[in-house]
Design goal:
With 136 residues, the protein is mostly helical. Helix content is 76%, strand content 0%. The model has no long low-confidence stretch (mean pLDDT 94).
Length: 136
């Protein structure tokens, strides 16, 4: 395993969480392994692993870029990641307001809708009782 792939897996797990990465790794096939390695090495092992800006700032930039380009499918995953990157709900709202002004209200509106749904799901999971009756 290359150093960038190893660094990428470390950062990816820190940002997205072990459960998410374990599911993604389990779903990887021979067909998409080269693509997954590219993402792990390039996105996670180079960009996200850089110490040039904080994970909070990267998280905010990523959400803005996803919304601005209409790549909505990954917004819920990156909203969940804010629990690990330190980007607050207020940060996310500020990001999407910026998107509204510079890239269009419909894209920001849809991103906010996805964020609200995801935050609601996260709160339900946090407050769900475990088998012992205590919240998780």
């Amino acid at each position: 395993m290359s150093d960038r792939i190893a660094a990428g897996m470390t950062v990816r797990r820190k940002v997205l969480g072990d459960a998410h990465v374990d599911r993604a790794e389990a779903a990887k096939t021979d067909f998409d392994k080269p693509f997954q390695d590219l993402i792990t090495q390039g996105a996670w092992g180079t960009v996200w692993a850089s110490d040039g800006i904080s994970l909070r700032e990267r998280s905010m930039l990523t959400l803005a870029l996803l919304a601005a380009t209409g790549n909505f499918e990954e917004i819920p995953m990156h909203i969940r990641a804010t629990a690990n990157t330190g980007a607050s709900k207020q940060d996310v709202l500020e990001v999407f307001q910026h998107v509204a002004i510079y890239c269009g209200v419909p894209r920001a509106n849809h991103a906010i809708k996805l964020a609200k749904q995801t935050y609601s799901e996260m709160e339900k999971t946090e407050n769900a009782p475990t088998q012992g009756g205590e919240p998780r």
